[in-house]
Amino acid sequence: MARLTIRDLPDQVHRALRIRAASNGRSTEAEVRAILESTVQQKERRGIGNALAAIGRTVGLTDAEAEAINQVRDKTRADPMSL
Fold first, then answer.
1. pLDDT, tens digit, 9 for 90 and up, residues 37-77
2. b (16+ CB within 10 A) / e for 43-64
3. By CB distance 3.0 to 4.6 Å, which of 2, 6, 21, 43 could disulfide with 31?
């Protein structure tokens, strides 16, 4: 397991962490771990295709416009890079 040291943490932040930890029945260290884990873990993995579709819906792309784009897009297969 990795270790992390946080320097120059303001007193009011440390105090708030201790209070939050106590209210959750954890040590301050366990509370900080829980906060970090919940912050960095992805809630839901979303692919690029879904993200692009969501953008299209947001800007009001119609099915007809999407089909027109599909008709003119380059469909040639890309060769993988060689390193």
1. 988 887 777 788 888 888 888 888 888 888 888 889 888 88
2. eeeeeeeeeeeeeeeeeeeeee
3. 21
Residue 49 CA, chain-centre distance (Å), reads: 16
Half-sphere exposure of 32 (CA within 13 A, CB side): 14
The pair phi, psi for residue 20, each rounded to 5°, is: -65, -40
Pick the closest to residue 14 from 1, 36, 29 (CA basis): 29
Decide: 21 and 28 in contact? Cβ < 8 Å.
yes
User: Using N-to-C axis directions, what is the helix angle for 28-40 and 11-23, rounded to 10°?
Assistant: 90
How far apart are the C-alpha atoms of 3 and 19, rounded to whole Å?
A: 23
Per-residue pLDDT tens digits for 7-42: 999 999 999 999 999 999 999 999 999 999 988 887
